[in-house]
């Protein structure tokens, strides 16, 4: 009888381990495909935006008037406004770093899954665990029964405070 139970437990463990392994592999592959698609889509969008901005800038650069300000702005030389290409590179860098962080997080989650740990314990250890559980349950029941027979201690009556009226604030 125990041999049959152990055989069934081993089969269950093998099946669950195989399913968890398959699920983690599928999850990892899907996550990688999604993150690659996100990075590629963002690259295409940034490339389109940079090209569009450069074309618009080239067309209107000759048509925009130069305005001289009636005052000096000596600190304006310090402000370097990034070009569309620089901003796009920075954005893509952030997207790639976020995708790498997501991949790392997913790998850590998958590593925590119990893919190679047994799900069902063999019959010999299972009966020992069941015996321990039954003993603990019997002890708790006996303790509760003994506690129920004791008379409850009387608590002193709490004084009630008079109700306060709500005061409207203006």
Which structural class matches the secondary elements?
mainly alpha
Largest sheet: none
| Intertermini distance | 81 Å
What count of helical segments does DSSP give?
Answer: 3
The helicity comes to 55-70%
Which of globular, elongated, flat, extended, rod-shaped describes the shape? Answer: elongated
Low-confidence stretches: none
Strand content: under 5%
How many DSSP-defined strands? 0
The H-and-E topology, N to C, reads as HHH
The radius of gyration is 35 Å
Mean pLDDT: 76
What does it look like?
The protein has helices at residues 2-61, 84-112, 123-149. By secondary structure, it is mainly α. It has a domain at 1-59 and 84-118. The protein is elongated.
Brief description of this entry?
With 170 residues, this protein is an all-alpha fold.
Keyphrases for this structure?
68% helix; 3 helices
Topology diagram in text:
Layout: H1 2-61, H2 84-112, H3 123-149
Helix pairs in contact: 1-2
């Amino acid at each position: 009888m125990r041999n049959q139970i152990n055989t069934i437990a081993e089969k269950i463990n093998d099946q669950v381990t195989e399913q968890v392994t398959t699920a983690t592999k599928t999850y990892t592959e899907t996550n990688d495909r999604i993150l690659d698609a996100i990075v590629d889509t963002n690259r295409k969008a940034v490339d389109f935006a940079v090209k569009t901005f450069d074309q618009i800038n080239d067309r209107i650069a000759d048509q925009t008037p130069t305005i001289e300000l009636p005052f000096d702005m000596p600190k304006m030389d310090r402000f370097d406004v990034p070009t569309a290409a620089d901003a796009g590179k920075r954005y893509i860098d952030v997207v790639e770093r976020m995708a790498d962080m997501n991949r790392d997080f997913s790998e850590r989650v998958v590593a925590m899954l119990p893919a190679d740990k047994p799900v069902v314990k063999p019959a010999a250890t299972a009966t020992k665990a069941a015996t321990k559980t039954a003993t603990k349950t019997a002890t708790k029941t006996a303790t509760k029964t003994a506690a129920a027979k004791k008379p409850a201690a009387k608590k002193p009556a709490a004084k009630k405070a008079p109700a306060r009226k709500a005061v409207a604030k203006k």
